[in-house]
Structures are given as structure tokens and as C-alpha cells.
Amino acid sequence: MVTMPVTATTSLAAPPPESQSATRRLGMAGLSAVGVSFGFARYGYGLFLPDIRAEFDLPMSAVGLIGSATYVGYLGALVLVGFFAVRVGPRALVTVGGLSATVGMALVAVANGWPVLVAGLILAGTSPGWIWAPFSDAADRMVPAGQRERVLALIPSGTAFGVVVAGPMALVMHGSNWNYAWLVFAAAALAATLYNIRVLPAGPPSPKARRRRDERLGVRWFVRGSAVPLYLTALSYGVVGSVYWLLAVEAISSAGGGGDADGTAAAFWTVMGAAGTLGVFTGVVFTRLGLRRSHLLLFGLLAVASALLGAAPGSLVAVGLSAVLYGPSFMAGSALLAVWSYQIFPERPTTGFSATVFFLGIGTITGPAAAGALADHHGVGWAFLFAAAVALATGLLRPPALPTER
């Protein structure tokens, strides 16, 4: 009876300075790695799509197939991450992802034909698969228990900061100069990789984790009942996000007919990223609203943002409102998956999150291919209306309550 108040008092005490320092360093490492892998390597294709199409003469159906192909590499990386997570630790996996982004984006920058372009895009597209999930184990090792969910919610917002940087670059380096932006992206990826090598722990997480390395994970471990709504949400999130990131700039540019449309598209991208930086407060939102209400709110906003861009891509008001709604809701959606997965798979965070992001990857493969075919036959607007319908349907799924809610 006496130990109960002592435990409560201890849990409320401030973490020691060394823990705070480790938390800050991990947060910065995660923000930088996710920023270059998602903000540049993954979504840079959609941002520079009009310029890439013009240089390589790509039809929309080919655009969708290339987008899907980049996600196939992403899924392959996820499978390997789930296998190697307890064998090599987060540093090695994030390093592979950072180098994939660096080399892949450099290939895109120097491509003189579509084979090299596609190879670079696919290699760069694998980087998020290597990078994102291992931060679950890194947080488990470096961050005090009471702060892990907030750090995991913070790290995905690195995408927004990458997008904020990429938008103005597209405004300055467009047309025949678009490849110079990709050289800058590659240099930034290398810098972020070197920083993560300094910060992240190396080797297996712990002796206990090394013992778990030889445990055979059966299908039941992955398809436990509580994980099914998580997987379905990840699948839907992948479809909605891949359609939006791939075709948003194309829709705006096509509706504007060129000229000022290029500036509008770059401004849209920048506004979307700037709004997405609000994702740094996602942990606070989850604490206040809980995962269930946050889930309903986020996918409702994603549906509205997609519908606006599908219905009125030539309207500055609709485009601006879509960017403002989509940026923070998409960043918070990534955080939702990370926190939700940590609740379902606390014993092996990276392996569980790799399974979650695998379903996200399936959505990102099917999304661009279906959207490209739909856009070819009925116009880009219908692809966005399709994404809005998928987002609305996802609101029917329910995450579990956070420990603080229970």
C-alpha cells in the first residue's frame, strides 16, 4: 500500500538531463531522416512530375505505374527491416535507408533516359521503408517510457519540413533545371544520414531482444484481432496519401494551363508543408482527444482536402484550403499509425510497425496505379474523389484507447 504513492510520484518526476538530451537528439535525428526520405525521396516525384513528364514524355498511365513501382521497393525494404530489426539495431537500418535516398536521388538528377530515372526513383523510394519503422526501437531504447508516444508522434512531421524546403526549390529550379533540385536533395540526405549515424544506437536492442531474435513469429502474432483495424487504416491511408502526393501538382498545373500554374503548384506545395509542421503538436492532440476521436477527425479532413482538389483544382481558394487541411492531417495520420502500432505491438515495436507500414505500402502500390488509370479515362479529378471516398470509409474503424484515456 505504501509503494503506490511512491510509484506515482516517481512517474511524475522530471526525467534526468541525460534522458532529455537523448530525447531531443532522437527527435532531431528522426525529423531529419524522415524529412529527406519522405519529403524529398518519396514525394519529390509528385512535386516535379510536370517537369519530369515533359522531359521524358511520360503518359499518365506510365506515371502511375512508376509511382507504384517505387512503392514495391518500399515494401521490399519493410520486409527486410522486420526481419533484421532485432539483429542489427536501428542505426544500420536507417543508414541503409539514408544511403538509398542519397544514391537514388543522385541517379534521378543525372538521368538521361527513363531507365536510369526509374531506377533512381525506385532506389530512393525504398528509403522510407528502411528509415521510419526502426525509430520505434530507437525510442524504446533512448526515451523514458512516459515520453515515447510523443516522440513517435513527432518524428513523422519531418515530412512536412522536407516539403516546406522542396516547395520553394521547385519554384526556383523548375523547367529544364529541375534536376539541380534533386542534387540538393541528395546532399541533404547524405548529411541527415551522417547525423543519424552519430545519434542512433548500434547493435541489437538488448540481451532480451537478442534472445527474441530466434523466436519464430507465427501468423497469429501478426494478425491478432486488435491489429486488423490498424492494418485496414494503414491500407486506406496509403491509398489516399499516394494519390494526393502523386497527382496534386499535376491537377493544379493542368487546371491552370501552364504559366502561373507552375508558381501556384509550388506555392501549394509550400503551404501544405508549412501547415504540416503543425504535426509537431500531434502528441498533444492525441492526449487531449484520444486516438479514436483523433482518427475520425484526421480522416474526415483528408476526405475534405481530397474532394476540394478533385472538384476545383483551378480555384485558388479550394487549392489553398486543401493544402491547409491536408498538410497537418496527413502528418498526424502518420503519427497515429506509429502510436497505434506501439500500443498493439509493445514487445517488438519495429517488427510490429513494419507489418503496419507493409499494409500502408500495399495501399501506396494500388493507389497510384488505379489513380493513373482512372485519370487517363475520366480525368484527374475523379482520382481525388475516389481518394476522398476511401478516407470517409476509414472513419468507421476504431483505434484503441490510449493508456491515459483508460
Structural descriptors:
406 residues, mainly alpha, Growth Hormone, Chain: A, 81% helix, disordered N terminus
> Helix share of residues?
over 70%
Helical run tally:
19
Mean pLDDT: 83
**Biggest beta sheet summary:** none
Number of domains: 1
The sequence of SSEs as H and E is: HHHHHHHHHHHHHHHHHHH
Outline: globular
Give a count of the beta strands, DSSP E runs of length 2 or more: 0
CATH topology: Growth Hormone, Chain: A
Straight-line distance between termini: 22 Å
Cα-atom radius of gyration? 20 Å
Structural class: mainly alpha
Residue ranges: pLDDT <50 for 5 or more in a row?
1-15
CATH architecture: Up-down Bundle
| Strand proportion | under 5%
Q: Can you describe this structure?
A:
There is one protein chain. The protein is mainly α. The chain has one domain: Growth Hormone, Chain: A (Up-down Bundle). It is built from 19 helices and no strands. The chain has helices at residues 3-12, 17-42, 44-47, 49-56, 60-88, 90-110, 114-131, 134-142, 148-154, 158-172, 178-199, 207-212, 219-222, 228-256, 260-276, 282-311, 316-344, 349-378, 380-394. α5 (60-88) packs antiparallel against α6. The longest helix is centred in the last third of the chain and has 30 residues, at 282-311. The two termini are 22 Å apart. 58% of the residues are buried.
